[in-house]
Amino acid sequence: MNDTINLDEIVPDNELEEEIIADLKSGRNKEVITRCPPEPSGYWHIAHAKAWTIDFDTAIKFGGKTYLRMDDTNPLKEEGEFADSYLSDLEWLGYKPEKLIYASEAYFEDIYKIAEQMIIDGKAYVCELSPEQVSATRGTLTEPGKDSPYRNRTPEENLKLFRDMRDGKFEDGKATLRAKIDMKHPNMNMRDPVMYRVLRAKHYRLGDKWCIYPMYDFAHPLEDALEGVTYSLCSKEFLDHRPIYDWFIENGWKKPYGPKQREFSRLTIENVLIGKRYLKQLVNEKYVSGWDDPRFPTLVGVRRRGYTAKALKDFVKSVGWGNVLEVTVPYSALEYYVREDLNKIATRAMVVINPLKVVITNGPEKPEEIELENNPNDENAGFHTALFSKEIYIEQEDFSLNPPPKYNRLVEGGIVRLKGAYIIKCNQVVYKENGEIDHLECEYIPNTKSGNDTSGIKCKGTIHFVSSENCFEIKVREFKNLIKAEYTNPAKALSDGVAISEILEPDSLIEKTALAENFLKNAKVEDKYQFMRTGYYCVDKDSTENQLIFNKTISLKDGYKPNK
């Protein structure tokens, strides 16, 4: 443990931290070591952020460390692309693992040797029942299982057969290595679970080196032990697996003070589909543009949309450790933290998405410079220069021929203030031949410039605008939730047989053109802006030198308030 950590000064946030303090004080553990153990079978999503935040922040709090371990024991699902993405995701979240470990390279030989020793100790046997037969003999929650007819082979027989498995003398599915525990155990995970299976599949790192692969429940605890992990943290869906975790530590590792498995509540978000297999289906069937589609709940997706790592971590921390199986929160809870962070860091800009031309009949012959704050919440953000000129553009919704009650924007004969500039009065609406509005003719009122208004005129409304002398065209992408609102639990709907196409919101991506201030020409990918009075936006990676594309991250306001 870091010598600067004073255990008596640490305030525990949950039962795990209370246990850690007790273990460190008693000498059971000398330091806190956690691990981030993804299976590289898909990109990380929002719920993963809770697990990794707990792993890293717990270790950091106690001066410990966290390993990034690729739990690559299933070659049928794993790809190097996914493994490569995890380091980038962690870097974005602000975490640096103590080291990167590939279980397949670091531990497969050691785990195999442990399996052989368990055979010698009479703790494991080779079973030639088919997968269907194994399932049929496992029993139910109320009925005990039945012993395999191969359960009482001698250690010598089992050792030879296990080596035959490794040497490729068994066909796929014709033999397994099973732990010899208790087929009558009330926890079905303890009914002689499979430790190894025969599987001829090309591994993304090892190729054809192995034709047998360890199962997760066997490999995971031993990888933890071999790494020196002290606390193996996972979601509560693995609570029923804790006894088998402990059994393999006791009978395979066989050393004092092995790692402890402890469980936190799984995070689910209303109206969001986060299962990797479902996300993979959406990608493979081209419902989205890829794993980093801005509508996707993957970390690469929300990052591309403009969410910040701080917002995501603040969100998962607000959910907490949890003592129930699953915590479900509304999506607006996440959006609250995104909005809170962007409000502090996003540069303000005037962008008109649905332009309406306005001619200032008495406007200046030469465009007049005005100064706008880049961010009123950041005194170091500085200012940028905009222009006020004879021809400007405002949002169509900021003018009304038939204004509703309490409408404080521009109407015919009425006044409104232009952000950072002057009060203008609308004198005439000019129409096209088809009856649509072509433009407005307005006049500006001298002595009303923002910051130097000596007119005494009271004006309730302020709107943004861009000058025709100081704007360029951009593309704006706006999004609806990928999942229809009625499917608050989309994973359950899919498991109930609803087609994936049925739960998807049609037209969840809308593209528009807009007019933006010229200073945005210098915007870079992932730069974040508040388009005044509209929302928060982020520069998309599809942008080119000739076409900037902005993703709408989130609206400016929402009614959600977190519990304090």
Key phrases:
7-stranded mixed β-sheet, 564 residues, alpha/beta
Which secondary structure elements does this structure contain, and how are they paired or packed?
Layout: H1 15-26, E1 33-36, H2 46-61, E2 65-70, H3 80-93, E3 100-102, H4 103-106, H5 108-120, E4 124-127, H6 131-137, H7 155-166, E5 176-179, E6 194-198, E7 212-214, H8 216-227, E8 231-235, H9 242-253, E9 260-264, E10 266-269, H10 276-284, H11 299-305, H12 309-319, E11 326-329, H13 331-345, E12 347-349, E13 351-352, E14 355-360, E15 368-373, E16 383-388, E17 391-395, E18 399-400, E19 410-411, E20 415-418, E21 423-431, E22 437-444, E23 462-463, E24 466-467, E25 471-479, H14 490-495, H15 500-503, E26 509-517, E27 528-531, E28 535-539, E29 549-555
Parallel strand pairs: 1-2, 2-3, 8-9, 10-11, 12-27, 14-22, 18-19, 20-23, 25-29
Antiparallel strand pairs: 4-5, 5-6, 6-7, 13-26, 14-17, 15-16, 17-24, 20-21, 21-22, 25-26, 27-28, 28-29
